[in-house]
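Batch job 17 of 40 flagged for manual review because the log was empty.
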Amino acid sequence: MPALPLDEAGPYVAGAYLVFLALILIYVAIMASKLVRIERELVELSDLVEGRRAAAKQEHEASRGEAVPR
């Protein structure tokens, strides 16, 4: 004999599924926010690298005696 008769267990099963669904949605929201933050940091790092490359290129051109556009 089950702990609860099947006709009385329905609300508990539905509640368990709702709690599980809520946990999955919270997990997805946390992962999405982390992904956005990481993407933003990656763009910042990319911009920083591009700036350093441009500065190094200008420095290299200046050391060769070429005109540096300002």
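Reviewer: the log was empty due to a logging misconfiguration, but the result itself is present. The radius of gyration is 29 Å. Unflagging and moving on to job 18.
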